[in-house]
Amino acid sequence: MEDSNFDYEGTLEACARGDQAAFKRLYQQEAGQLLGLAITLLGRRDQAEDCVHDALVKVWSNAHRFDRTLGQGRAWIYSILRYRALNQLRGRGRLVQTDDSFIEQMADDSPQAEQHASDQSDGRQLRHCLGQLERPRRHPILLAFYRGLTHEQIASRLTTPLGTIKGRIRAGLRALQECLQA
Amino acid sequence: MIPHDLEPRRALIGEYVLGLLDEPQASEVRDLIESDREAARMTLEWERHLLDLTDQLSPQAPSPVLWERIQQTLGWSANAVAVTPKGFVRWWQSLGLWRLTSGALALLVLLSWLPGVMKPEAPGPSYTAVLQQPGESAQPGWVVTIDGDGALRLKSLVDDQIPEDRSVQFWTLIDPQDGPRSLGLIEPGQETMLSAEQIGAVQAGQLFELTLEPTGGSPLDRPTGPVLYIGRAVLIASN
């Protein structure tokens, strides 16, 4: 969970100056959540730990390339993790059998959860905006995010034609950004 | 082709961030992000929004050797400790020695081999909880004990076969309003120890349960699978 008291930007800048203690604080703060996402994407704990290892090594060695005028530090860290995990997934070729019931659950998300998300004041309202999409647009976006599936894989998972899936995701993202900018 | 207009461009970057673009389009967007600050900003903006989905997942405790591995890769050999056998790591964690400074640590590592050195002078209350299958009251499945130091021991009395594509996750619930808290994955049939730091303060009536989850544990911050065993903590000594 994000800790609003943790200074991600300052910590990354300290890492860029070679501050090992700062990097250790970052590890203690974020490794568990990074691993949670990596396990969800990769489906296997051993590969997920490899992924977190590679991503954090990259965070350290590329910390000087982080620029706080471009965006948040935590978002930057997760962009590295997801990129790494997606490469691992694509390189693997075959899909691991996964239990997607929690994604189904979120695709059917209750209005209460949406409400909760929209109550957060710091503008983090993706779940609220996702909740406003129709299920056929929301579900493929969740599969792409949590499982790193490609268009083709989503189409076959949802037994929907490829062109339809591409169109729904694109329309879903357009609607999302409209909602997020509002 | 990268759209010139802002909104279609932002949406395309969203697809890129989700990993949905094929080559050569993915490379085009990557080049754009490298060279165009506005595109880089849009990328991190999507990533920031997506953190909302990341934070729906419950954190998973990394294995103790992950940090050592990272340090070794980075060549911080002065700090890097050789990979230790599993039993030692567990003992190490259970004492919570990580909180101590290295000087005190070296001393305590020596002292702690002597029995009783690590025990606090006045132990706190101890508890036990018998976990049973929901609706069953005759057959205990697992026993939880929390000793006066606050350390928890989870012991199996049954030999359960867990499907290969499933994990068993251990949870506790103090206040239903706060929701359950994951105490990590357990190996069926094996004894699990958790330190006082990992478990936190225990109170009478506190709920413990084991649920069947997807491999690697529940992807959410709450159980998603069926309850295998459940029980409440009972005070056995208040000292």
Automatic annotation (TrEMBL), chain A:
<protein>
    <submittedName>
        <fullName>RNA polymerase sigma factor</fullName>
    </submittedName>
</protein>
<dbReference type="InterPro" id="IPR039425">
    <property type="entry name" value="RNA_pol_sigma-70-like"/>
</dbReference>
<dbReference type="Pfam" id="PF08281">
    <property type="entry name" value="Sigma70_r4_2"/>
</dbReference>
<keyword id="KW-0731">Sigma factor</keyword>
<dbReference type="InterPro" id="IPR013325">
    <property type="entry name" value="RNA_pol_sigma_r2"/>
</dbReference>
<feature type="domain" description="RNA polymerase sigma-70 region 2">
    <location>
        <begin position="26"/>
        <end position="94"/>
    </location>
</feature>
<keyword id="KW-0804">Transcription</keyword>
<dbReference type="InterPro" id="IPR014284">
    <property type="entry name" value="RNA_pol_sigma-70_dom"/>
</dbReference>
<dbReference type="Pfam" id="PF04542">
    <property type="entry name" value="Sigma70_r2"/>
</dbReference>
<dbReference type="InterPro" id="IPR036388">
    <property type="entry name" value="WH-like_DNA-bd_sf"/>
</dbReference>
<dbReference type="InterPro" id="IPR013324">
    <property type="entry name" value="RNA_pol_sigma_r3/r4-like"/>
</dbReference>
<comment type="similarity">
    <text>Belongs to the sigma-70 factor family. ECF subfamily.</text>
</comment>
<feature type="domain" description="RNA polymerase sigma factor 70 region 4 type 2">
    <location>
        <begin position="124"/>
        <end position="176"/>
    </location>
</feature>
<keyword id="KW-0805">Transcription regulation</keyword>
<dbReference type="InterPro" id="IPR007627">
    <property type="entry name" value="RNA_pol_sigma70_r2"/>
</dbReference>
<dbReference type="InterPro" id="IPR013249">
    <property type="entry name" value="RNA_pol_sigma70_r4_t2"/>
</dbReference>
Automatic annotation (TrEMBL), chain B:
<dbReference type="InterPro" id="IPR018764">
    <property type="entry name" value="RskA_C"/>
</dbReference>
<dbReference type="GO" id="GO:0000428">
    <property type="term" value="C:DNA-directed RNA polymerase complex"/>
</dbReference>
<keyword id="KW-1133">Transmembrane helix</keyword>
<dbReference type="Pfam" id="PF10099">
    <property type="entry name" value="RskA_C"/>
</dbReference>
<keyword id="KW-0240">DNA-directed RNA polymerase</keyword>
<protein>
    <submittedName>
        <fullName>DNA-directed RNA polymerase sigma-70 factor</fullName>
    </submittedName>
</protein>
<feature type="transmembrane region" description="Helical">
    <location>
        <begin position="96"/>
        <end position="114"/>
    </location>
</feature>
<keyword id="KW-0812">Transmembrane</keyword>
<dbReference type="InterPro" id="IPR051474">
    <property type="entry name" value="Anti-sigma-K/W_factor"/>
</dbReference>
<feature type="domain" description="Anti-sigma K factor RskA C-terminal">
    <location>
        <begin position="103"/>
        <end position="227"/>
    </location>
</feature>
<keyword id="KW-0804">Transcription</keyword>
<keyword id="KW-0472">Membrane</keyword>
